[in-house]
Amino acid sequence: MAQHPRIAITTYGRDERGRFSLPAAYVDCVRRAGGLAILCPPGEPRLAEWLALADALILVGGGDIDPALYGGPRHPALYGVDRERDEGELALARRAVQSGVPTLGICRGTQLINVALGGTLHVHLPDVVGERVPHRGSRPGEEALHEVEVEPSSQLARVLGATRIEPASSHHQAIRGLAPGLVVTARASDGTIEAVELPGHPWLLGVQWHPESTAARDATQQRLFEAVVRAAGEGRRRPSERIAT
Ligand code: MN
Predict the structure, then answer these.
(1) Ligand 1 centroid from CA 101, angstroms
(2) How many angstroms does the Cα of residue 112 sit away from the middle of ligand 1?
(3) What are the backbone dihedrals phi and psi of residue 175, each rounded to the nearest 5 degrees, phi first?
(4) Which residues are tagged catalytic?
(5) Is 99 inside a domain boundary?
(6) What is the pLDDT of residues 46-89, one digit of tens each?
């Protein structure tokens, strides 16, 4: 039986009807890249056991991280705050950093990696940079396209095969204080941090946009999923490089 790299994917928290959910596009992208998707909803008390099942981790998008977790202010534009999800995912992100498991952060997932490592967020980006660059659609939950400039020497540029992209976005928050160890690898024209990497980690990338939204028609965005699945497969062949946690 062929062994495909196992890609752990977080999910959204419990909704008002008591259901966990996840946009199917995340799973589609992983499957298209040859990975075996394993979902992990919030509230898992055995996080270490769950992460040990996987060869890579994808921290997906969603609502805002509770600003109390990074010393940020309350703001009327905050939405979807879910402490159960925040606490589990922060623990997961820290484990992923320590263990060296390949990790891809997407939108909230990238903000989460930054907070897990001691960084802070802009609680409402339009208050800081205005709305000249459309980081989100005109209605809640809608996406917009805006240009992102990628640092040519970055791992991200090598993965994408491009330094100027126009991905789909839906965010009203972004990294404010960069966590120690992270480096910025892409920005929007208003200065907003759009991607980070963690030098010294075998494979950790975070993007502020939504590659899964356009990957079915945009090979450049699908390459992020191909790269994390490839890194997962390589890590699996060299398990001694992974540090037990
Ligand atoms: Mn953006």
Answers:
(1) 26
(2) 16
(3) -65, 135
(4) 107, 210, 212
(5) yes
(6) 999 999 999 999 999 999 999 999 999 999 999 999 999 999 99
Residue 1 falls inside a structural domain:
no
The answer to whether residue 194 sits within a structural domain is yes
Question: For residue 85, is it within any domain?
Answer: yes
Give start and end residues of each alpha helix (H) in the chain: 24-32, 47-52, 83-99, 108-116, 126-129, 155-160, 211-214, 219-237
Angle at 242 between CA 112 and CA 1, to 5 degrees: 100
Q: Domain of 66?
A: 6-241
Please, are residues 56 and 231 in contact by the beta-carbon 8 Å criterion?
Answer: yes
Task: Report the distance separating Cα 72 and Cα 244, nearest Å.
Answer: 33
Dump pLDDT digits (tens) for 221-239: 999 999 999 999 998 776 5
Tell me, in angstroms, the distance from the centre of ligand 1 to residue 8's CA.
Answer: 25
Q: CATH number of the domain that 199 lies in?
A: 3.40.50.880
Helix, strand or coil, per DSSP, at residue 230: helix
Task: Please give the distance, rounded to the nearest whole angstrom, from the Cα atom of residue 135 to the centre of ligand 1.
Answer: 4
Q: Any idea what the Cα angle at residue 57 is, between residues 64 and 109, rounded to 5°?
A: 15
What is the domain count for the chain?
1
CA of 9 to the centre of ligand 1 (A): 22
Please say whether the beta carbons of 42 and 20 come within 8 A. yes
- pTM to 2 decimals? 0.96
Q: Which residues contact 30 (CB under 8 A, 6 or more apart)?
A: 7, 9, 36, 37, 58, 225, 229
Contact 95, 51 (CB under 8 A): yes
28: three-class secondary structure by DSSP: helix
